[in-house]
## 1
Amino acid sequence: MLELANVEVVYNEVILVLRGLSIEVPDGQIVALLGANGAGKTTALRAISGLLDNHNGEITKGTVTYNGEVINGRKPSDIVLSGITQVMEGRRVFGELTVDENLICGGITIKDRNQTDEAYERVMDLFPRLAERRKQVAGYLSGGEQQMLAIGRALMASPKLLVLDEPSLGLAPKLIEQIRDIIVDINQQGTSVLLIEQNAMMALSIANFGYIMETGKVVMDGDAKKLLADDDVKEFYLGLHGEDGAKKSFKDVKHYRRRKRWAS
Amino acid sequence: MAKLKLNFSEPSHVIGVSLLIGGVIFSVYELVHDPDIFVTTLLKSLALGSVYAILALGFVLIFKATEVVNFSQGSIAMIGALFISFMVADENLPIVGFFWEIKNPIYSLGGPEWLMWTLSVLVALCFAAMLGLVIERLAIRPMIGEPLFSVAVITLGLEIVLRGFANDTVKIQYRNINAPWGTGGFKIGSGFVNWSYFAAMIVAAIAFVAVFFFYRSRMGIAMRAVAHDQEAAMAQGINIGKVFAIAWGAGAVLAALGGLFATQPPVRQTGAVDPEVSLVAFRALPAVILGGLDSVQGALIGGLIVGTAEIYAGQYLSGQTAWLGSGYPLIVPYFVMIIGLLVRPYGLFGTPEIRRV
Ligand SMILES: Nc1ncnc2c1ncn2[C@@H]1O[C@H](COP(=O)(O)OP(=O)(O)O)[C@@H](O)[C@H]1O
Ligand SMILES: [Mg+2]
């Protein structure tokens, strides 16, 4: 189980971005971490995967534990070795490398060649489209194919926990559905999933549990089904009550924040 | 590989193409007019181009992985050549040999001279690689995350320190390399070709083939991934420190090889290591910039173009020293580089923008 307990993260020694974030990802489950742009979702992922250093960020309070071991401040490669891999926001495939070479990078920490061969077979089964483009340079793949490659790359280290940062971003509805089904497949094959999304509908439709965060901490959590049914969530994160079912604009979200402040 | 699109409303492209056409017409004319001189000049320029390409490859390997233009390549080249001289002329192990003398064991084994020489050079290259690792560890690794400009300035400072150390402490003066191909060569009509030309070409070919295969190995793929997106590479668990170390080690080996050939014709005729060796790496800098700082093909093509231009200008404009000045061939690489950059500002094969957080 992955557990973040009261995690505070500061960028550049002054910008406090996570203000006591606490979430749990039990083994075998899909957990959704939702929130608007700028809420601190990606920062939470960096705190888990050891990439804060790259951004001059630091965990100033709280702990990140995985299976009972404190993992804050460990090197990214150690995190990968402990069984947590990630699909970064914006895919971040290595555009000048071929599909196969990208996958080799994903399995770089694994010394056992049989294990990477098996992982490779699994990726090819999950993504037949990638199998057809194995020798192609990743930069020329479509957005959906790049997202599949990013997920495949993260599977090459045979993770026990996979963290995905906004995998639906910029994809057509058809592709989002495909990605969603693949996440379910991956989870059923025994990998826990932490799914970071702005697309609450997509995430909650497959998650067991969900957290909603705002300005660096959790403001609401619960069973995914319960969250899906919740009126506030419906209105402000799923945008179901807007005219024509259109998504609420940023202004409405602001209005929501103001109302929350009165209430508390 | 980037594509070169010609656009004839662009003056720089017109200049580039006319120079190319002029060059071809000139070559055909000279080939018919005096084939001996033309062919020996061609071999000479391929040789100089090979030396520049080897040195350029060292810059590119380091730049691709770390985004640092290593201005200390020159002194590493000189010290690498010094290591070789220690191994083959003094028959002592380098580094340690500065203080205690430890015999190079290879020469006591016996065997053909060229074989012992080659093995000794390989050992010297290992010491050069260690020098690269030490520099990376002590001066570059602690600077990760600092502005690239500061890192470049550090390498410039290193160049001065290392050069001073080699000049004053070790007092390198005309130390022998004892190249097995000697100083001889053969004549083609009225032209002369040195055996060292072929040595340079063969070593350059080996170096580029080795890098080609290295880039397709697991470690090489990891290095290219780091070059493309350092953070995403870290997220895969790629060990950035190891990648940096290997790039610097390999870069130092290439510099040392460049230093070896910097003592040989056609670069210089002395056949010995002296302080001037460190300047040769800087003569290769236009080749690197012309080819593109982050491109292996660029290092090869850039090196060959610049080497060819320098030798041909030296051969065929030698009647014009009255107004060009006698040192003009050394300016030619920069002239070629500037024309190249007018056509392609980021080098012939370079990537337009460097994506890095
Ligand atoms: N490298 C950084 N340096 C300074 N501030 C940052 C950095 N990265 C993100 N932030 C700030 O942290 C907040 C949360 O960002 P982020 O974690 O990317 O949110 P999300 O992923 O939920 O959109 C934003 O206000 C953003 O401006
Ligand atoms: Mg984000």
Note: The mean pLDDT of chain B is 88.
## 2
Amino acid sequence: MQMGEGQAFVIIDKRLHSLLTAKPAGCAEAPCRVPVPAGISICEALQLLGVRLPNALTPVVNGITQDLSYILHSGDEVRLVVQISGG
Amino acid sequence: MLVYKADTLPLPRAEFLNGQSAYTGLVLHVDLTTPRCWVESPPEAFYRRFVGGRNFILHYLLTQTPPRIDPLGPQNLLIFAAGVLSGTVLPGTGRHAIGAKSPLTGALASSEAGGWWGSELKRAGYDAVVIHGRAAEPVYLLIRDREVELHSAKHLWGKTTADTQDALREAVGDEKLRVACIGPAGENLVRYASVMHDVSRAAGRSGIGAVMGSKNLKAVAVRGSLPVGLENKSLMQTVQKWINVHYKTDMAWAIQYGTAGSALGNVLTGATAIRNYTRGLLSGADQLEPEQLFRLLVRDRDTCNKCPVRCKLVVGYEDEETPIDTRYGGLEYESIASLGPLCDISDPVVIAKANELCNAYGLDSISTGGTIAFAMEALEQGALPLEWREIAPRFGDGESLIRAIHQIAHREGPGDWMAEGSQRLADRLGGRAHEWLATGRGQELPMHDPRLKQTMAMGYALSATGADHMHNYNDSFATAEEGDICSRLKEVGLPVPMPLWGISELKIEAFYYETAFKNFYDCAVICHFYPYLYQHMVEALSAASGWDVTLDEINRIGLRAITLGRLYLLREGFTAQDDRLSARAFYKLSEGPIANRALTPEEMRYWLGVYYRRMGWDEQGIPSRQAVEQLELLDYMKEN
Ligand code: SF4
């Protein structure tokens, strides 16, 4: 895992928080804005935070939809949208 | 009018009557022209090969309708088909499929509905009902414990779906009568009219309601007391035990808010098309926040047969100006998106009212929203006739949206043109109108934007039903280590997670397996929200039928539905050139979450070719004899 300069932020809203099977450190209650190091992928950031849920997530970084492999830059703000199954 | 007493009709299989099998072994045929009915007893091999649902529909369309018939003529069939698993104790199996030749696309119509109707049909002693011909005047069909009655429905013609159900329940004196019916839209042959069940469960897509209307058939009501049993109860219990634990976490989203809970998230990720695919941002999107939606509109929860999830919403609004009748049930994501953001509307009350009207009139909410959004753009571009400028729908104008739905259902003014669907409307307007179209095989695209979900876009282009999101691969769902889709992909040896963007050889492989699995679901017939894996389906189908089912068999049942669908398309005159999407699927946005993202038509064509090869089809998308033979479908190839 390669750390870059500065921090990015992961936003955990109430909906996502309620569906998580493990709550991330520093986010006992939602909504919260958790700092993560820049230079790592969103996937790695979620592992670092211990974010786990039984559905897929789509990250939206600064308003743009990205893949989980997207490498975070300093100041990026990541909103995570829960994907539901089926229709 | 016409009555067949149960003792004059064949008995279901002895195993079914003893409560030791999940399928009756009987298919009821009703000819509305003569009228008369007869009962077919297909052999066990037929059930094992096809299981039910979409495969049954395709079997009857391919063998009992001539090619290129008028979908609204008496030669078309209307097929209600449960599956071997329908109505069993397994949660998620309270479903059935309805099919016909589609009056919207000229291709296959095959749509599924939840509720109780499918399970009740099995309890009434039949696995499927095939409707032939056309009644001379409006009728309804009543099936109770194998007994079949056909009655005049003249007094029901013109009634909304809830009023029809209420009237039938009162006439029969049974509050639990399960009613599948059309509303005024089906009677008026709107090409995307739906068949409604229990008032709020739609077999919505591709105009099945118009086929029912063309047959002068207002309703099919069922009630039964026969047991839907199992061959192997303890085997089924292993699947029940698994789902009874897993639904609480894996379907927590559904328990919480149903599909309505995804509306805001889908706008934020770009999954929802806005203003007929021309904008990336929706003003007032926050109004779709689930907690707020619930506080404002949701009065209760509802469910389907034997489902503990209760994902269905009961929506109401007690307001003199915009009252919303709770009988018409709830908002689903697809309805919110197509009647809301697609028309540049974010007011939840307007969207809920529009949804109520679609359910009352029996209209497919996706095609209704899609066609109205197209008309809104046509108005903005100055392409509509001058006399309609004041009465046609306008982007962002809720009142005009509601008016347009009334117009469509009754074919009034511009509603008469809109009732034909956006493709025919574009043909009629000419000029640049095709540039504003968002369709696949002539059917309005579902609310999963093909510019975000690019493998799904290919599935839209390929499907024999026209663009459909249900029997498709969802790019956004397979991006995790966990979740049902990823677990199924792991079961067939594929690596996960899959990338979100683009298409690749690997994603084609995932598409191949996942679409086969989803088609199996539509044959069995199972709720797509349930996170079952291949292994669960192997055990459930074995337990229901007594067959020694394998994982490969589950896959092949789904592949049969895809292949029969392809043979049907070819028979009806479609070619590989028709496997495409209209212009808006490729239109790049300059703003919002999916700015500058979209496949090109050339990229899509390339990946279609890769999929054809994976299926054993030639470059023209024609299945090889060998591919058809491997699926034991050669007898259907001869029909071409
Ligand atoms: S999850 Fe929802 S749609 Fe599926 S069976 Fe249950 S209530 Fe019906």
Note: Strands of chain A lie at 7-12, 32-37, 57-61, 64-65, 77-82.
